Every structure is written in structure tokens, then in C-alpha cells.
Amino acid sequence: MKNRTIAAIATPNAPGGIGIVRISGENAVEIAAKIFHPVSGKALTESRGYCAHFGEVFDNNEKIDEAVCLVFRAPRSYTGEDTAEISCHGGLYITKRVLRAALEAGAAPAEAGEFTKRAFINGKIDLAAAESVMALIGASGKQAAAAALNTLDGNLSREIRKCADNIIGVCASLAAWVDYPDEDIEDTDAGDMLPVFTETRTALADIIRRYDCGRAVTDGIDAVIVGRPNVGKSTLMNMLTGFERSIVTDIAGTTRDVVEERIVLGEIVMRIADTAGIRETENVVENIGVSLAKRRLERAELVLAVFDGSEALTADDCDIMEQCRGKRAVALLNKTDLPVAADREIINAAFSHVVELSASTGEGRDELEKAVRKIFSTDEFDPNAACLTSERQRQCCVNAMTHIDEAIAALNTGVTLDAVNVCADCAIDALLELTGEKATSAVVDEVFSRFCVGK
Ligand code: GDP
User: Which residue minimizes the CA distance to atom 26 of ligand 1?
Assistant: First the structure.
């Protein structure tokens, strides 16, 4: 069956200098030619690949824009298909109008991630690399972008493929032995297999560890700011975001909703929530805010617990310390631009990480960054090493490791070699699911459903 030719706007839905409408599929250039006329008078359909044409865009004979049309010829394009990219003037109206003209000329609207899905199906990239495209688009910092680019380059897939090949190598004679037990096949030696399984397991464990310690950099972390009223939570939120996001007043109970923002602290991306002050109160509305704050505190990956350094600690402060117990948390002794009256000893005893700062002046921000880096071991993160970019990939690695563990256990306990063979096969399948070589269409659909339209 012929593939539909698809079209979508590839640039953000916002005013901008240039907007790109991408058309890909067997009829891409024919469809583009119906709406785009090169000023040179040459037929676009005759264009070679890698050619740019200046011309005019028409919708039902009405000229709607001047634009540049790039032509790519299969297989030398992002999708591996014939592709035309019309770079028109950016903006909310023009790009939509050009897209509509392309659809009326015969293209079908692209689904989320369909261009990259086609690149995957046409063998231009593997599944791990396709996922890194989204990671690259979503990257908020230098390290996250470097790690995603690294995976896009195929570093991860090469390392995973090496793991799979090692197991395949050692199991080849095993599989033959299992399939043809009566044939005179060279003796399979369990002693040869064990080191390969162990080494592969170590390599996978390393990849997972790198992902876990780099997650703060690649995915970002969910953090919450908590503290009793008036300790400076909203001021801290504003200091971290760099603008007035939360309302700062001396009136206790001003923040009732949870205010959320994305911030970048050094290389770490945080989705940070400023919450209502936690205190004992009879006020029904305020109590709702307090409950919301407590719930946020429970599920956050990082708690920033703020205390007013200029005052003695209160029962509400102690209640908050109690709730932070066992959580990844940083105690922030705020208002240190004023004389310190809070008992540092109590705070030091309750938290492994204490930072003194002044949310008003910004003093202490670097120390906060250092503490968060330490908690999430981000200094150990090496964006140049093979890096997982999604939970799906992590799960594939974990599954492969579990099957390798089973194979090792089977070898050690002297269980029959067919059992070892089954475990090894499952481990290989898990690794090939990661790269996409053996992923089911449901897995592939799930991966691309998380993409944006136009990518
Ligand atoms: P929240 O209720 O915890 O969100 O506290 P706010 O951020 O609204 O701050 C309460 C009061 O403390 C405001 O008057 C702030 O200006 C003041 N404040 C906050 N942080 C600091 C600080 O670092 N130093 C000083 N001197 N005052 C601060």
C-alpha cells in the first residue's frame, strides 16, 4: 500500500520570523508544486534533492506569501521519503494557511511524531535515537542537550548492540545444542558463558546508574518549596525563577494555590512548586492550601524546606522537619541578611543538607545549586557516555539485566542449558526492544505518541 503523503507545521505555534510547513511522502513534491510556484519558472517537480527554490505560495489561486521551498529526494531526507519544506513567514496565520493549502492539494495531516516514525520505519534512525530527538527538543540545559545528541549519534544503540552481540555470540552454540541435541555439536562450555553474562550485566548496570544520576539533568526533577507562612517561600520562588511569579507580602496565608514553574539551576532542571505556608489553622480555605502543600511534599523528588533564620524556630517548623524525614531535602535558612535567631543546631540535626541564604538578595543561590548537585550526583553525569533518554529504555535495560541474572543463577545451580538459553534469548529481546529492532508496533506507537506534531 502506498504511504499517505503527510503535512504539518514544524515550527512553534507562535509569532516568529519563519514558519516551516513540512510535506513528506511519495507525492510530497507534486503537492508542494500545486501550491508553490518558483519565480524561476522552473517546474518544482523536476527539482533535484537538496535544492532551495524561491517563489510564491498560492491557496486557490490567491497568492498568500513569498517563501523558500527546500526539496529533498528519497532516501536522502529526514524521513527517508521525498520531502518538501516550505519556509514561509512565521506567525499564527500564515503557516496555518500554507498548511491548509497543502492539505487541500492532497496531503493528509501528520500525526504526532509521524515524520520521525517514518524515519524509523525507513531505517534512517533506530528507536533509541528517535526518542533522543524529543529529548533534544525538550532539553533545557547544555548537558541534557549534549546527552540527547550523543544518543541521536547512535552511541547508546552501539553500546546496547554490543551487549546483545556478546550474548548472541556466547549463546550461538548453545542454541544449536538445544535445537539439535543429537547432533555432534561442539561442547558448550558453561565456563565460557559466565564471564560474558557478568560483564554484560555490569555494562548495563553502569548505563542505568548513569541515567539515574543524570535524570536531574536530562528529565528534570519535581521539587517543592515548603515552610510555615512568611518564611520567604514566595520570595525564594521569585529569586529562582528570576521574576515575580509568586505574591510576596507580610500577610500570612497569601499563597493558597500551588504555583508551579520550570527553572534551571546550573545544569539542573526543576519543576518547582511554591505552596501555601504549612501551619495549624482553623481557616477552612487556608487549610485546603495546607493539605495541598503536604501532599506535594510527600510526592516531591526534592523538598526545599524554608525556615526564617531571623526568628526562633516554632512548633510549625518542627512539624515540617518531621515531614521531611527520610526525603531528599535541603533546609534553607532564609533571611540571613538579618541577624540569625533560629537554632542552627536543630536544623543541622534534622537535615543532611543545610544552606544559608537570603532570598531577597540572592545570596546563597550557588550553595543551593551545589547541594542539589550533590543530592542527585549530577557531577558524576557524563553526557559523552552512552546515555538512556527515557524510562522505556531504562525498563528494557532492567528487564535484560533480570534475565541475565536468571541465566547466571541457572548456570551456577547447574540447571539444564535450555533454561540458560531461554533466559539469554529474553535478555537479547529486551535489548533489541530498546533499539527498536524487535519492538512491537504497540511499543513503537507508544513512543511516537509522545512526540509533537510536525516532528
Ligand atoms: P512566604 O509566606 O513564605 O511565601 O513569604 P514571602 O516570600 O511572602 O515573604 C514574607 C516576608 O519576608 C516578605 O515581607 C518578604 O519581603 C520577607 N523576606 C523574604 N525573604 C527575605 C530575606 O531573605 N531577607 C529579608 N530581610 N526579608 C525577606
Answer: 335
Amino acid letter at 120? Answer: F
Which residue spans of the chain are classified as CATH 1.20.120.430? 141-215+389-438
Instruction: Report pLDDT digits (tens) over 261-308.
Output: 888 888 788 888 888 777 777 777 777 877 888 888 888 999 999 999
**In testing the pocket of ligand 1, which one of 245, 248, 250, 311 has its CB within 8 Å of the most ligand atoms?**
248
Looking at ligand 1, which residue's alpha carbon is closest to its atom 9? Answer: 232
Residue ranges in 363-416 assigned as alpha helix (H): 365-375, 391-413
CATH class of 221-380: alpha beta
Please give the average per-residue pLDDT across 349-364, as a whole number: 96
**Site to substitute for ligand 1 among 224, 228, 234, 235, most atoms within 8 A of C-beta:** 235
Distance CA 312, CA 330 (A): 19
Ligand 1 atom with the shortest distance to the CA of 236: 7
359 ligand 1 Cβ < 6 A: yes
Alpha carbon nearest to ligand 1 atom 27, residue: 335
How many C-beta neighbours within 10 Å does residue 152 have? Answer: 20
Distance (Å, rounded) from C-alpha 172 to C-alpha 229? 66
Distance CA 347, CA 318 (A): 9
| CATH topology assigned to domain 141-215+389-438 | Four Helix Bundle (Hemerythrin (Met), subunit A) (1.20.120)
pTM metric for this prediction: 0.70
Matching CATH number, 6-110, of 3.30.1360.120, 1.10.357.10, 1.10.3210.10, 3.40.50.1400: 3.30.1360.120
186 pLDDT more than 60: no
Residue 44 is which amino acid?
L
Question: Mean pLDDT throughout 336-341?
Answer: 96
Confidence of residue 190 (pLDDT cuts 50, 70, 90): low
CA of 322 to the centre of ligand 1 (A): 23
Kindly report the CA angle at 169 between 167 and 175, in degrees rounded to 5? 85
Return the ligand 1 atom nearest residue 237 CA: 7
pLDDT beyond 80 at 54: yes
Residues of the chain with CATH 3.40.50.300: 221-380
pLDDT in tens, 89-111: 998 899 999 999 999 999 999 99
Ligand 1 centroid to residue 235 C-alpha, Å: 6
Q: How far is the CA of 289 from the centre of ligand 1 (A)?
A: 19
Per the CB < 8 A criterion, the answer to whether 208 and 214 are in contact is no
Over residues 136-148, the pLDDT tens digits come to: 887 777 777 888 8
All CATH 3.30.1360.120 domain ranges in the chain, comma separated: 6-110
